[in-house]
Each structure stands twice: as structure tokens, then as C-alpha cells.
Amino acid sequence: MAKFSIIPKEEKFFDLIEVSAANMVKAAEALKDLVENWGEIHEKVLKIVELEHAGDSVTHQIIAMLHRSFVTPFDREDIALLAHSMDDVVDFIHSAADYMLLYKVGQPGGRVRELAGIILEATKEVAAAAPKLRQKAGLKQLLEHCIEINRLENLADQAYRSALVELFEEYDMVDIIKWREIYDSMESATDRCEDVANVFEGVALKNA
Question: What is the mean pLDDT of residues 153-162?
Fold first, then answer.
């Protein structure tokens, strides 16, 4: 017997987008805990790996629904880009944490903690913005979150540049290579948050 859902497909899209956004926050919280409470590295990275797998699963569900749906709450291309961009944020968080484990780095310094804090704030903005996609009345408020995400991404760029300067001043070449990979992944996570904000902004302007 075929199974039918009483939940409209449009609502399912919104539900999954919000689940993905919440998963981003959890991954960012786990990264911040890793760098601020240095210890039990393997276990903490494993938690981030599990969150990365959970994010992949939600992304696959969104894309599968796109293929099955004739009607979507907003442009298919925007939904796909949004899903992949949110997934990428978690992927880069995972990459940063994984490099810390694989490279056996020492306790992270202030710039790493600064970037982890910015990533967390940016993901929280995404999670706060996502529910406002559901109704036209919330689209104007969506733009406010986009502005804040862009501001945080600019802060991350500044922290990243300062981190690189400090690396070359204070570390040997081996450590420079290790930390450069970590910084690149963390900065890329904020870039993808900005990509999410750009999709939000496009949806708001198209549908306001």
C-alpha cells in the first residue's frame, strides 16, 4: 500500500531547511567547544563527523524532494543552492576539526578561537533567518539577518588575514602549513554562510 503524507510538501522543504540550519549551529558549537576546551580531541572530532553525516542526510532529502516535486515554495535553483551551501558550512567545520586531529596540533591560539566564535554567530544568524522563509511577511526581516551574516563574514576575513600574518611571524614552516589548512577551512565556512545569506537575499527580493 502506498504511503501518503498529510504534511504539504512545501512545509517539508521548510522543515528540512530549518533542520539543516540547526545542524550547522550544532557543528559550530562543537567546533567552538573543541578549540576552547582542548582535550578529548578524537571524541570531539567524532561528534563533528556525526553532525557532518547528519547534514549530508538532510541535504540528500531536500534534493530528492526537489526531483519528486512539481511545485516548490521558491525557485528550485535557490533551494538546491541553499541546501548545498548549508551542507558546505558543516563540511568545512569538519575539515578544520579533522586537520587539528590529523596534524596533531597543539592547543589552538586566539585567532582560532576568534574564528570559531564568528562561525558560531554566523550559523546562529542562518538558523534564526531560516523560519522567515515560510511567510511573505518574514522576508523583510530575512534581509536583516543577511546584513549581519555579511558583517560577520567581513570580520572573519580580517581575523583570517591577521592569523596568516602571525603565522609567518611566529611559526616554522611545518606549523605554518598545518595551521594554514585549518584557517582556510574555517574562513571557508564563513564564506559559505555568506553564500547562504546571498540565497536568502535573492529569495526575499524575488518574493517580497
Answer: 96
- Per-residue pLDDT, averaged over 69-83, amounts to 92
- pLDDT tens digits along 158-176: 999 999 999 888 778 888 9
Written as nine digits, the cell of 197 is 545569506
The whole-angstrom separation of Cα 99 and Cα 8 is: 42
Question: Cell 567547544 appears where?
Answer: 33
CB neighbours of 130 closer than 8 A, spacing ≥ 6?
A: 14, 17, 18, 21
- Lookup: cell for 11: 512545509
Q: Round to whole Å and give the CA distance between 136 and 139.
A: 5
Is this structure's pTM higher than 0.85?
yes
Written as one string, the DSSP assignment of 101-142 is: HHTT--S--HHHHHHHHHHHHHHHHHHHHGGGGSSGGGHHHH
Q: Which domains are assigned to the chain? A: 9-207 (1.20.58.220)
